[in-house]
Amino acid sequence: MIFSGIKETLTNPISRTYTIAAGIIFGSFVGYLSSSQQILQIQYKLGDSFSLYFGGLALVIGLSSFANSQLLVKFSMETLCLASLSVLSITSGLFFFYSQSSSGQPNLIFFMSYLAITFFCFGILFGNFNTLALQPLGHIAGVANSMISSVQTLISVGIGGTIGQYYDGTIIPLVFGFFICATIAFAILSLHIKSTPKISK
């Protein structure tokens, strides 16, 4: 029973797509977690104020989750995910070039503003990805949720660890990691949605 549930979870195209996309995006977030203290406390010399900045960004995710519940009244989860990935990819690409022009250490206000936008997108993506991945597997929700979480964790730890290892005293590896992960996840979702047969009314 458990084995068949695991097999169904891994072979279901909808569940597989959103599980992989979520793992990739969460990987960039893990990359931030592994390098945030070095960036904010040491690189930007925030010292004991680091916890305030870190907590403020966590609050953005909470606000985003609330906004997501309101946006779902008008938009589908798929639309919100694609829109969030688009914003995350575009802003990260632009900020990557800006960061390079400032030797990898842009103004703190600009950097925090960019991270606020990034985390707002994360708040929308995290909940919707998991819901979409579980949607076709309600009859085996317990096994499916465990399997989805395990796969996401394996993917995210690998990606996050890689991003963290590339920290070089600048924010460039982190921003580039956000850009690459968002772009890949957007491509995966776009291909999945295009290949999904439309149900005629």
Largest sheet: none
Shape assignment: globular
* Total of helices: 7
**Proportion of residues in β-strands:** under 5%
Let me know the average pLDDT: 91
Query: Which bin fits the share of residues in helices?
Result: over 70%
CA-atom Rg in angstroms? 18 Å
How far apart are the termini?
A: 36 Å
Secondary-structure-based class equals mainly alpha
Order of helices and strands: HHHHHHH
Low-confidence runs? none
Number of strands: 0
Tag the structure with descriptive keywords.
201 residues; mainly alpha; 7 helices; 82% helix; 0% strand
Description:
The protein is mostly helical and 201 residues long. Helices cover 82% and strands 0% of the residues.
Ordered list of secondary-structure elements with their pairings:
Layout: H1 2-11, H2 13-43, H3 50-71, H4 77-101, H5 108-134, H6 141-165, H7 172-195
Helix pairs in contact: 1-6, 2-5, 2-6, 2-7, 3-5, 4-5, 4-7
What is the structure about, briefly put?
The protein has 201 residues and is an all-alpha fold. The chain contains seven helices and no strands. It is globular, with a radius of gyration of 18 Å.
